[in-house]
Each structure stands twice: as C-alpha cells, then as structure tokens.
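Morning!

This is the sequence you dropped in the shared folder:
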Amino acid sequence: MRIYTGFCLSLFLVILCTLTPMANAQGVYGANIFDEDEGECNVSVFIDVDYTDQYYYEFYGYTTLLDEDIGAVAWNEGPCSPGGTCAQIDYTGTPGHSYYGVGTLYVRMCFWVPFPPEPYEEGWYDPSDYARYEIDGIYVLNDYLWWRGNFHYNDMEWSSLGTIYTNPVLLPSVVIQVDDLHRFVDWPWTLKGQGYNASVWANGTPSGGTYEWSIGPKLGYIGSLTSSSIGLYGTDASQNWDDTWIQVRYTRNNSHKTASIRFTVREPVKLVTTGAGSTITIPGGYITYVSYTLYDQLPGQWPLQADLMGITEVCKTVSVSHPVVFDPIDGQPRTGQFENSVFRDSLSVTGNPPYNFSGVRTQTLTMGGLSAFQVQTQTYTPTYATVSLNQLVR
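The structure's back. Tokens below.
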C-alpha cells in the first residue's frame, strides 16, 4: 500500500517599516538637513512548512538574506515545526537597497514503519489484515509512506525538499528638499503669513509611490498633503530655531519610509537703516538712497534673507517751503524689493529746490499682511535727504 504525501515549502520575504514618533526627532544640521530619517525598515525572511503531521517526519531549514549590492548579510537555520515556520531572519535594511531571500528545507523520517505484505486493492486496504500499534495516543496502520520528489521511502537520513529564491524587494527611501532661498545656513525656514511661502518637495525611490505629508505646529500649507511638493508658510512665529517640523511618508509596494526636517517660522520685526545714504544729482534736483537691512524675531535677531519679499512705502508731506515734486508721491503706495537681503529706498526731489529749500515728510513701511513698522520722519534739504531713525521696529 502506498499513501502519497507531499510537502509544500514556502519562503517569505516580509518588509516591515516602523515609524518613530516625531517627538523623538532631533534638530537638523549640516548634511542631514534633507534626510533626517524617522523610521526604519525591518526585513524578515523565513520558511513556512505547509504540513501538519508531526509524528512521521521532522524538518530542518536554512535561510540566507542577500543584499543585491553587497551579497549575503544574514543567515539562520533551525528545526521547523510542521505547519509552522523556521529559520527566521530579522534584519534592519538600508533604504534604497534591494533584498531577496534563499531558503532550503530538509526532511527525514522519525521512525521506521513496516511495509504491508500485499495491498487489499490499489489505493485501499483491509484494516483487519494488519496489526495496529499506538504512538503518542495516535493509532497508525501498518503502512508505509511513499515520498514524492527526491525523498525516498526507505531514507532515514536528511533529504532536501529543494531551494527557493524570492523575488528582490527594493526598500523605499525618501528625502525632503527646500528651495535655496528658505535655507539659512542649515536651518530651513518660512515667513509668518502667506505670500512668501517656502517650496518643499520630497523625492521617493523607487518611483511610483504615494506621499503623505504631516505638518507641525505654527505652519500652514498651500497645495495637497498627498502630492510630492507643497508650499509652507507660518501661522505663528517661532520662539527658537527648529521649534516645528514637517514630515513625509512615502509608500511603495506596501512598504513605507519616512523623513522629516525641523522648520522655523521667522517674522520681520526690525529694519536697520544707514541714516543719510548716498546722494546723486539729477536734472532739477537729487535722489538720496537709504538702505534697510531686515532682522527677525529670533534670539540674537538674525538678518532675514528677504530677496523675494516686497516692501511698501507710503509718504505724506508735513511741510514744504517751496513747490517741488516728491517721489514717492504723497499718499501713493510704492513697492520695492529686497536684493541681497537689503532694501534700497530712494527719496527724490525735483523742481529745482532753491538754496533755502526745506521739507518734512512722514514715512510708513509695511511688508505683506504684517503690521507696519514705526513711522519715521524724512527731512529734505536743498541737496540731500535724511531719515530720523536708524532702526524701525514693528
């Protein structure tokens, strides 16, 4: 009598990426500015034995985990429980690397079972013809198992059931980048208020995955939290550098990787002037240039890179000794730009002011939707103009 019994050998490669809470994130400095990783990918490989009869056979497995870039990185072996798993490898993978597993399963008989003299009928037998004996409370007929494949019916030694290779799995990786303007040394930042948003984007590999952004306190965003890029602006000013954050989670092939960077919300709070600047003569008058450097609210008050930011000026004449033409024109807003973090204002008088000419005007400067800087006074002489304050605060 022959009872045909087969085994199913399965090799599994499991990628599990775990996420570390954002509360554990550290400050971002130097080369780490674009890739502060908040998660890790654990790679697991194991053998699964799809056979549940534990009284006839015992199994033993060998596994190897390979990194396609550097070769074998982990090994394991051990006995396998029927219907269970064995030789499991748990390994912390490197994002952007491909991994695959190799597994070999061996089997042997646990004890000898005598072969019956004659089968009653092909595929059947008469239980009354054979004695019974009990093993661990399980009655077994005087029969013998015939193995398929390369395991022989009379083999009490270990025999291989074959080797299986998994398909390579590429671990996802992702980095965050910020536009050049919104990086002060190694600190990404944005301004309080909309209009001067920082551009932030994520690069995930392999391509074809999905993105999910998380935004820390004091930040608002423009765009979609499920796109690869967003715009960031501040809703509240930071008290210190790096006191908020952004995070992106990139998912590909049911695996994910996260990256985060610290962020700072800066607010313009002070303009420092050079007082009476350079003056040039023009037909019928002159232009005096006054330069303003912008500073933020952070401890130490740092210069604020404001090259794409506009500043609006409104002037009103308080008194004038002779009829002339001022620029800026009374009551009409004039917008200028910062260049290399400096706003260069021009105060112009035309109309041939005489030697005894004098004039006084007020000047108000504002930026975006922020409250105005304190009002200062401009004093005009026949040949140049001055301003009353060497710094303006909000």
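Headline: The chain is about 0% helix and 55% strand.

More detail when I'm at my desk.
O.
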